[in-house]
Amino acid sequence: MSDHFENFLRLSVRLCGISSYDLMGTGYARRYFETIERIIGHDLLHRLLETFSALPSASTDKALKAAILNHPEFGPIARNIIKLWYTATWFQLPPTWRENFGALHEDRTFVPYPYAYAESLLGPAVGAHPAGAKPTGHQSWTLPPVFLPIPPECE
User: Fold this and answer.
1) N or C terminus of the chain with fewer C-beta within 10 Å?
2) Please, is 114 exposed, middle or buried when counting C-beta atoms within 10 Å of its C-beta (0-12, 13-18, 19+)?
3) What is the DSSP letter of 110?
């Protein structure tokens, strides 16, 4: 794996609160990395990942928020990365972002991989299956949800 892809995976773990094992298990980690790189460009993605990798390994959520989530350029992209993992949809960057940093040719709201919805994180995060995408079993609605554990690196 490339250093940038590994940093993307580590950033995704911190942003989503899901282990790298579960993220890789979706089968879309590499594809999401490539999709984001295609949309925002090599340089911008790598600047975001370099900023993240410069944070101390034991950095707090407060440090992540300050360096990434509250950053005017990186914040909306980081939130889109979260939304991509959880909904399998890339949402167009906000109008203020486009005004400040320029419109990107590939930036629009779309589903990059139609079959990724079945592996999106939203269902497992709430202890359910993605609606209409996976069988839940006879009377599964009668059972309480089972939630994904929070990985130690996100606590």
Assistant:
1) C
2) exposed
3) B
**Alpha-carbon Rg for the chain in angstroms:** 16
Query: Looking at residues 43-65, what average pLDDT do you find?
Result: 90
Structure tokens at 28: 């879309």
Q: Which residue has the tokens 């709201």?
A: 109
| Mean pLDDT, the chain, whole residue set | 88
- Phi, psi (degrees; rounded to nearest 5) at 130: -60, 125
pTM of the predicted protein model: 0.84
Q: What is the DSSP string of 32-94?
A: HHHHHHHHH-HHHHHHHHHHHHTS-TT--HHHHIIIIITSTTHHHHHHHHHHHHHHS-BPPPP
Residue 81 · residue 53 · CB < 8 Å: no
Is residue 148 classed as helix, strand or coil in its secondary structure? coil
